[in-house]
User: Fold these one by one.
Assistant:
Number 1:
Amino acid sequence: MTRSVGRIFSGFRCFGSLPFGNPPLKTQCSSVLFRTTSERTLMHALPKIFGRKPRDFSLPNSSWGKEMMQLYNHYNRLSKETTEGQEDHGEQWTRLPSYNRTLKYATGGVYLSKIIQSKARLFTRNIRDPGASFEYVIFFRQDKLKCACIFQAGHLLEGAPGHVHGGAIATMIDTITGTHASLLSAPVMTANLNINYRSPIPLGSTVLIESILDKEDGRKRYISCRVTSTDGSKLHTEATGLFLSISVSHLLKR
Ligand SMILES: CCCCCCCC(=O)SCCNC(=O)CCNC(=O)[C@H](O)C(C)(C)COP(=O)(O)OP(=O)(O)OC[C@H]1O[C@@H](n2cnc3c(N)ncnc32)[C@H](O)[C@@H]1OP(=O)(O)O
């Protein structure tokens, strides 16, 4: 039990950055998660245990439009160039892989059924039809002071006719600011979100969501966020969030 809780905690440290996909994250997470030979063996056996390698939802698919692809290529280029050139570590961006069963994959399949029900899926990744709901990819800067998310809103996210539902926008804001906070000090939970909706987001369009760390104070992380058009000229939404780092036992309380 204690060991399982320990592994879950390790998994949370990689909450937004899982041991598959991007090489820098793989190194970071695997050093935490798979220290023993048996754990490494388990890691190699994972595809057999789960049948196949989990789908990384943050990679391009056929539904991604021109703007989504342009921005993705932009951040991807910055990630590769700075990684290869080792020029400026502060400006180095990294793509975060994204799975629909984050904690299960982050912990190499070791989890407590009390926390993860077998049918549980990450809210933003539970519709497999490409382009129907939340298409997004998050990049973070290596110094973790800034995250950038490219978000294309699918037809299932309608609120006001022809526009994205405010709750869907809030979900994306919680996702990027929560991911940002968890990169700084996982595990975290959202304590407060304040959102101002400034201009509606047309359904099917692509927007840029950027988050910055405003302040750290003990267990508290204050993160603010702006949703804009991809060229930054139009402000759609502004938000601030407070995230509190928690102990794993907090999640076991019922
Ligand atoms: C991969 C995708 C990532 C997505 C991330 C999504 C994350 C989520 O959505 S989490 C789900 C939504 N959030 C929740 O359900 C959280 C529910 N709330 C809770 O569990 C608890 O209230 C929790 C954990 C936030 C805080 O509880 P606890 O750890 O006991 O802290 P507590 O002792 O009450 O407060 C600690 C400090 O924070 C402050 N604080 C707590 N809540 C708030 C709040 N809402 N507003 C302002 N300050 C607050 C307290 O005043 C206190 O301040 P100080 O230390 O200066 O006295």
Number 2:
Amino acid sequence: MKEKKMTLMTQVKYWQENENLPLEMKQQLADLAQNPDWVQDAFGADLEFGTAGMRGLMEPGTNRMNLFTVGKITEGLARLIDELGAEYKARGVVICYDPRYNSAAFAQHAALILGAHGIQVYLFDSLRPTPELSFTIRYLTAYAGIMITASHNPKQYNGYKIYGPDGGQMPPAEVDSVVKYAEAIDDIFAVQTGNLSELRQAGTIQLIGENVDQAYLAQLQTVNVDRKLIAAEADNLPIVYSPLHGTGNVLYQRVFGENGFKNVHIVPSQAILDPEFISVPSPNPESPAAFTEGIKLAKKVGAKLIIATDPDADRMGCAVLNQAGEYELLTGNQIAALMTNYLLTGMKKSGELTAQLEIVKSIVSSELPFVIATSFGIKTKNVLTGFKYIGEEIEHLNQTGSGKFVFGFEESYGFLFKDFVRDKDSLQAALMMAEVAAYYSSRGLTVAEGLEELSQQFGYFAEETKSIEMTGLDGLSKMKAMMEKLRSETVTEIAGVQVMRYEDYLAQTAVVDGKTTAFTDYPKADVLKYYLADDTWIALRPSGTEPKVKVYVGVRSDSTEHAHANVTRYQSAFAELLN
Ligand SMILES: O=P(O)(O)OC[C@H]1O[C@H](O)[C@H](O)[C@@H](O)[C@@H]1O
């Protein structure tokens, strides 16, 4: 039965009375459906793919994460692979998951659906980091991958990411074809699953784990630049690491150890795999509260660097000891600047630096790493928000031979160096960050002093993202209205400084001196970006992972104080424009 044709209440009734709906979900639905707003939100739409897959609350409903919505999209993928034919079915799909509630169950459900189609499935024997999934797709030459995770979202959420044969998150056009197959499903309660024991016996579902871990860990040994430096410094460089209750715990100890970082202290309370993420308000390495436990341990062991990763270990944040003896959180942009400088300095020293190298970032990330990269004479490339676009660029470079990927990052704490993974990889990032700390330590400097050194050389850059929450039923329409309001206005100055260039990524136009030209460097996206006369840039876009609009401001100034004052000034001037 096609659910779209039913009214919302008929849909709710159809779910409620369906014999396949587990008793627990029936009860949950009976309670929640008392609220018409909830019904509208949970059944008024289908869960959509955003910046990084589908994410939703774990509840009944078509706009929620549950066995049936997971089943629907997986069946869509299975039908697409059926259509592609035997070779693709044999290449198969790798399935991985994080420690959230239901993650293992959703992963197994997806395996049974693909298995019922005779599609080869490689299912991880227990939870693993997202970047390991990306690696494994390439390693096993599988056709696709599924990651069950809601990244750093609160514990009530889960999510579903699809990866393509190159190990990158599927770009929108390919996801659309999976969605098309899924939409053709008549009744999501009738999606067939195979029998686990039979599929295991037949080898259609193969468990993977340590065998793949070893291969991934071996590749991770190619990330660091200067082993001698690490050997000389690492013993005197205590590092604190927290997996924030997530998958990082599975491999990190080995990763650090195998790469010469023996003096690593794991935060014991946060090394417990816990779907409640009990010790943190949000398991997000961007948030200061994620470092509270780490800082306590760091003070005890005298650590200069604290590293934390989100539950699926694709993103990494860190805190460093500053001159005042306090732990200071670095932004994703600052981490990227430090890494760019260190990596290219190291490559120059070892003779590996060539003009063919390319560094890739998103359009809302800091310009400082590009300024540094340009000073080393390497190429730079901007892409839209979403690491899938960095993955796409890597594939493009490799296919065309037009450059060699050396580093990709986003301000949202995603970093990647080596293309054996095609999504952000916190394990690679942690190794590089530890080496950055070793580098400054060898020069008798703290990482914070290293940042100051970069500012003195290249300018004082500062960036800030402010989010305007837009939750609730009308959240989406409010976000649209905000974007439209700004589009309808001709903004010639912000805080008294002239707008030199204005880009609308949806209309694909750029305006300079009142003249509009076509601007087709990127796929269409709901983003507006302003470039000001003093090197400031301001961008506005609705988030693709959370109900919020994000305002990004980036400035370049002559001191830290001026830079921060300018960021604040521009944020408030822009907020006025939005009102
Ligand atoms: O700004 P958003 O659309 O919410 O996305 C923020 C981030 O979300 C996820 O972590 C994606 O994998 C990133 O690529 C993205 O930068």
